[in-house]
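Project outcomes to date are best conveyed with an example. Our students and postdoctoral researchers have been running inverse folding experiments weekly, and each run begins with a structure described purely in tokens. The record below, which covers 286 residues, was selected by the lab manager from last quarter's runs and is presented without edits.
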């Protein structure tokens, strides 16, 4: 590390490191205040049908509009918020805001192809004793139907404490809310294990999609997962599609849904309606 670094370089490295640590600590202490000051905002990334690229859902992705440091992505604060508990307040706000937003889009265009909003739920948030009640209350407050909500949970959540988690997942599904396993493939769960879990959707992690055009093995693996998931009645969303060739390959494999920069980056709410206009008969739209 220190090799090739002059003495000045080493000192600069140390002070950069100290600076980064101070910044992290500062952010951490500002998180609770940020909730009260309503400094969080949402972007939405389209989830499309691979066959015709129509938008069927959007994923809500939280950002922190920091008064000094500008717009910060989840990488900068979600882990810290999970550790100090701020994620409970942030997560509740995200769910309420996401539901308010989809209710508004649905009201503006009742025939929209947009069916649901997908909301990330952190393990700590899911494990709160009243989580199911929070979901119910957020739906009611927004006047949103349960089918409009897809909750994204992690593999690690369903692997630990399975009994309590399964109970809550069942309660959510009884409400009509659907559940997805996010970043599938990065944890240690197997598809056969997942089948015992009351979930509806698998979101196949970007790391699986990256190499499908260059690695025959990776292509075969993803194809096998898509086939098995289909046989288990799980819908599959491929994450992180960046190239037209990946869309085509996944479509051919029978993967129905996808998300990624190839279709759209996360967008501000105002930019969504243009993408989700209700389908018009071809003859009329000409
Ligand atoms: P995720 O749930 O897997 O969300 C997808 C992430 O991949 C997003 O990053 C999105 O911008 C990015 N992405 C989508 N398509 C592409 C692509 O084609 N290429 C590349 N390179 N990236 C792509 P983002 O917004 O930075 O979010 C990162 C993670 O932060 C999310 O991963 C999720 O785990 C977490 N997160 C975001 N919002 C929330 C939230 O409200 N609550 C909680 N607990 N976690 C959240
Ligand atoms: Mg997600
Ligand atoms: Mg994901
Ligand atoms: Mg991911």
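After processing, the design step wrote out the following sequence:
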């Amino acid at each position: 590390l220190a090799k090739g670094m002059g003495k000045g370089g080493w000192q600069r490295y140390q002070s950069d490191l100290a600076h980064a640590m101070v910044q992290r600590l500062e952010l951490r202490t500002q998180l609770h205040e940020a909730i009260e000051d309503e400094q969080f905002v949402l972007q939405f990334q389209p989830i499309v049908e691979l066959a015709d690229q129509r938008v069927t859902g959007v994923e809500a992705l939280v950002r922190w509009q920091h008064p000094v440091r500008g717009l910060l992505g989840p990488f900068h604060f979600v882990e810290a918020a999970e550790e100090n508990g701020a994620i409970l307040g942030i997560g509740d706000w995200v769910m309420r805001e996401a539901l308010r937003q989809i209710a508004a889009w649905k009201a503006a265009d009742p025939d929209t192809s947009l069916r649901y909003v997908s909301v990330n739920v952190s393990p700590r948030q899911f494990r709160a004793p009243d989580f199911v009640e929070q979901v119910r209350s957020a739906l009611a407050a927004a006047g949103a139907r349960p089918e409009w909500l897809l909750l994204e949970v992690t593999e690690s959540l369903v692997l630990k404490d399975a009994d309590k988690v399964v109970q809550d997942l069942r309660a959510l599904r009884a409400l009509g809310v659907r559940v997805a396993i996010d970043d599938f493939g990065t944890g240690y769960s197997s598809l056969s294990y997942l089948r015992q879990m009351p979930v509806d959707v698998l979101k196949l992690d970007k790391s699986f999609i990256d190499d499908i055009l260059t690695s025959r093995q990776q292509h075969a693996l993803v194809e096998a997962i898509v086939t098995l998931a289909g046989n288990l009645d799980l819908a599959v969303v491929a994450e992180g599609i960046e190239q037209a060739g990946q869309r085509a390959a996944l479509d051919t494999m029978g993967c129905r849904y996808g998300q990624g920069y190839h279709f759209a980056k996360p967008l501000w709410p105002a930019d969504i309606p243009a993408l989700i206009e209700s389908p018009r008969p071809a003859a009329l739209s000409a």
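The pocket of C2E (ligand 1) is lined by residues 45, 61-62, 73-75, 78, 87, 91, 94, 120, 122, 152, 182-183, 239-242, 259-261, 266 (CB under 6 Å). DSSP finds twelve helices and nine strands in the chain. The training component of this project remains on track.
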